[in-house]
Specification:
289 residues; alpha/beta; 3-stranded antiparallel β-sheet; globular; Arc Repressor Mutant, subunit A; Rossmann fold; 9-stranded mixed β-sheet
């Protein structure tokens, strides 16, 4: 059972930035710790993301969290979940803004129920303007997007199709005077069409967390750029192919020409050592770079 608390817009602990937007929620329901002042940054994107999207979302989320920003996202499958998980894995604070009530029966997606405990253990927070018992609809999720941007100095869209909810969040950010960022992708990828649209219309093109930190005027960030090396030639072979981008296990076997059992064993070792990350679905990427 979750202990859902509430806070009024009149309360001194109500988030200061959110209070300034047009039509802020009069009441916020929350789990965990809510703060009036903190440096928040939103990372959002498609639910059906590519391996490229997963990898870049993880890296940027982790680096921004290391730089001291609280990562805000929408708790949805895909890019949102990766942003939350990357932050948690660095032991940092993340805020999930939901389009449902915060009780166990209403929360969506159910696949993220275990993620709630990890968010709270790391000092994070779950927020909703919908009272417990409210199930998600096609209206509640777009409505909550104004809260995601409203809490934040800026919004990064990692991957988005035209007409996606992430573009709704970016539009709210524009109306609220927040900075908008977007990650470019292949011109042939439908999941990057929304990002390219944003870039064409003034969003800052982002290749790494450094681009965001410079735009926000955060200069003293300590980002991890150390080279990751294996202990054996076989480990280094796997790390080399992953430097080109995230790959599934079959591709790693194909590129390294190592046996399936050897690759599986080495992947487990490298993951335990934090040198690579399993992005889900058997997709692996370089861990801390």
């Amino acid at each position: 059972m979750f202990e859902v608390k509430s806070i009024s817009i009149e309360d001194k602990n109500y988030p200061k930035l959110l209070k300034k937007i047009q039509n802020p929620p009069k009441i916020l329901y929350f789990l965990g710790e809510i703060k009036s002042h903190e440096n928040c940054f939103a990372i959002v994107g498609t639910r059906k993301c590519t391996n490229y999207g997963k990898e870049i979302a993880y890296q940027i989320s982790a680096d921004l969290a290391e730089a001291g920003l609280t990562i805000v996202s929408g708790f949805a499958p895909g890019i949102d979940t990766i942003a939350h998980k990357a932050t948690i894995e660095r032991g940092k604070r993340t805020i999930a803004v939901l389009g449902t009530g915060l009780d166990e029966k209403a929360i969506y997606p159910k696949s993220n129920l275990k993620l709630i405990d990890k968010i709270l253990e790391n000092g994070g927070c779950l927020i909703s303007e919908f009272e417990p018992g409210t199930h998600g609809t096609k209206y509640t999720f777009p409505q909550r997007n104004r809260i995601i941007s409203g809490l934040s100095f800026g919004v990064l869209v990692v991957e988005a199709r035209m007409g996606s909810g992430s573009l709704i969040t970016a539009n709210y950010a524009k109306e609220q005077g927040r900075k908008i960022f977007a990650v470019p992708g292949s011109v042939f990828s439908q999941t990057s069409k929304g990002c390219h649209f944003l870039i064409k219309n003034g969003a800052k093109l982002v290749e790494s967390a450094k681009d965001i930190l410079e735009e926000l005027g955060i200069e003293k960030a300590k980002l991890r750029e150390k080279e990751i090396k294996g202990k054996t030639p076989e480990e280094n072979l796997i790390l080399e192919v992953l430097k080109e981008g995230a790959l599934d296990i079959e591709k790693i076997i194909e590129k390294t020409k190592l046996s399936p059992s050897k690759v599986a064993s080495l992947l487990s070792i490298l993951e335990i050592e934090g040198k690579i990350k399993n992005l889900g679905g058997g997709i692996y990427a370089i861990g801390n770079r």
